[in-house]
Design goal:
The strands form 4 sheets. Strands 15-12-14-13-17-18-16 form a 7-stranded antiparallel sheet, with helices on both faces. The chain contains 15 helices and 18 strands. The protein starts with a helix and ends in an 18-residue tail after the last helix. Helix content is 33%, strand content 21%. Helix 1 runs antiparallel to helix 2 and helix 12 packs antiparallel against helix 13. It binds flavin-adenine dinucleotide. The site of flavin-adenine dinucleotide has 35 residues, from strand 3, helix 4 and strand 10.
Length: 466
């Protein structure tokens, strides 16, 4: 293939693969629902190389998909058949840590956990944290505007990106690798690219905002009887802990029962079954003794007042891990439910019980034997759902999607809180976005990528009639 040969001459033969030599990681997504046969895989080492690759591909109108850790759950990093897969795995350097400005300049192929650990070793915190931290890349978390466990306190990826460098659809390099928190000089183009799932530009480097590393961390598993009580606890902790509350991960009782049951006997259940709701609560601060005493006192008071039924506070790193494992080590609990569908929706927090009841009702009507588990970053209005009947085909998938997204639409929520649209959510995008919003999105895409080269077949491009 002529293009492959030209690319090999540009970046080296070892870094250009074609046909069957392209491994599964670059062709199949994590859910294994989406598979493809890209013609070429390229692994550039510099932004200039990315730019030259894009120019060459653009000449042939060849679709380009950037592949990060391939941990996205909506099929957005699966390349087009016959297209170009671009991996930034060789662009994985930490360019600079500036502890005065509290910024970190990073190449987009760097793994999130590596960035977190490098920052921590320097006494700084990159607050973004999610279960896929060991594989997700900085380009991927920017490309999806990832959220995760600490949005409640520090926001989403968008809130952590100060500067950005990207390659546009014609190969132009746009760079604003600044360290300024404030910059209102015209349109802020970087926010267009963040969360655009590789459809508007290829992020090559970023300047991320760091925070001082908290020196104390308190983690608890708490239980309430009702959803309203859980929210009362959330609001109380927000006030009393004066901004130190970092995570509030709500779990419906059947999610807690399923996950903890599957982890036995290796991991004893940290709290008895029988409560309505369970929450992993975490606070981070700067005075270990004071913070722990205040955390314990606050939880005790909430129990005495009858708002909370039980609380287990982690007394060691091992106990903290055991609490977080309920949310993060989900494979044992999910395995018997395979094949299942998973959802990532958001809404005003107050609507969550209405949504959950309605989604359950919609599902039960169509699939009386369906099992549905709710959990999520509820402090941010973000709920995840796992739905299973033990069988899956496109018709069942569509039935599940319709049941869940109808309930989301009824409460004025969003079909995609943090994982994005990709392929799997695209048929439903118009359910929670107006025609005017969709038209604006199309205008932007057409203006920035007129040949529709960047990640075609995803997001707007994948919209059916839903
Ligand atoms: C166990 C688990 C837990 C998860 N928890 C969370 C969570 O709590 N919160 C959350 O938000 N997500 C979560 N996710 C989803 C996933 O980890 C995120 O979407 C993550 O941001 C994807 O990063 P990635 O490097 O794997 O990107 P990929 O999956 O490879 O790509 C995702 C999208 O980003 C684009 N992209 C990749 N690199 C670039 C780049 N350099 N420039 C432009 N676009 C690019 C791709 O083209 C694609 O459209 C979870 C996933 C798993 C498997």
């Amino acid at each position: 293939m002529e293009l492959a040969a030209t690319l090999a001459a540009l970046i080296g033969e070892r870094h250009v693969l074609t046909g069957d030599a392209i491994g599964e990681h670059y062709r199949i997504d994590i859910t294994r629902k989406y598979k493809s046969h890209p013609a070429i895989l390229v692994k550039p080492a510099t932004t200039a190389e990315v730019s030259e690759i894009v120019k060459l591909a653009a000449e042939e109108a060849m679709p380009i998909t950037v592949i990060g850790g391939q941990t996205g759950t909506v099929g957005s990093a699966v390349p087009a058949n016959g297209g170009l897969a671009l991996s930034l795995e060789r662009m994985n350097s930490i360019v600079e840590i500036d502890l005065l400005s509290m910024t970190m300049t990073i190449e987009a192929g760097c793994i999130l956990q590596t960035v977190q650990e490098t920052a921590e070793a320097q006494g700084a915190l990159l607050p973004l944290d999610l279960g896929a931290r060991g594989s997700a890349t900085i380009g991927g978390v920017i490309g999806t505007n990832a959220g995760g466990n600490r949005v409640l306190r520090w926001g989403m990826m968008r809130d952590m990106v100060i500067g950005l460098e990207a390659v546009l659809a014609d190969g132009t390099i746009v760079s604003s690798l600044t360290k300024m928190l404030k910059d209102n000089a015209g349109y802020n183009w970087k926010h267009l690219l963040i969360g655009s799932e590789g459809t508007l530009g290829i992020v090559t480097r970023a300047v991320l905002r760091l925070r001082p590393l908290p020196s104390s961390r308190q983690t608890a598993l708490i239980a309430t009887e009702t959803f309203e009580q859980a929210i009362t606890v959330l609001r109380h902790l927000e006030v009393v802990l004066s901004g130190r509350l970092s995570s509030f991960e709500l779990m419906w009782s059947n999610f807690f029962a399923t996950m903890t049951e599957a982890q036995l006997p290796q991991r004893p259940r940290p709290m008895a079954l029988g409560h309505g709701f369970y929450v992993i609560v975490e606070a981070m601060g700067g005075d270990a003794d004071y913070d722990l005493a205040q955390f314990e006192r606050t939880l005790m008071r909430l129990i005495e007042e009858g708002v909370m039924q039980d609380a287990v506070i982690a007394q060691s790193e091992r106990e903290r891990e055991a609490i977080w494992a309920i949310r993060e080590d989900m494979t044992p609990g999910l395995t018997p439910l395979r094949p299942f569908a998973s959802y990532d929706v958001s809404m005003g927090i107050g609507y969550m019980p209405v949504f959950a009841a309605q989604a359950g009702q919609n599902l039960a009507q169509a699939y009386p034997a369906a099992k549905i588990l709710f959990y999520g970053h509820a402090g941010d209005g973000n709920l995840h759902a796992i739905v299973s009947t033990g069988q899956m085909n496109p018709e069942i998938q569509h039935g599940f999607d319709t049941a869940i997204f109808n309930a989301v639409r009824d409460v004025g929520g969003s079909i995609a809180a943090e994982h994005g649209i990709g392929v799997s959510r695209a048929p439903f995008l118009s359910w929670t976005r107006s025609p005017a919003e969709l038209a604006l999105m199309r205008s932007l895409k057409n203006a920035i990528d007129p040949k529709n080269i960047l990640n075609p077949g995803k997001l707007l491009d994948a919209m059916g009639n839903g």
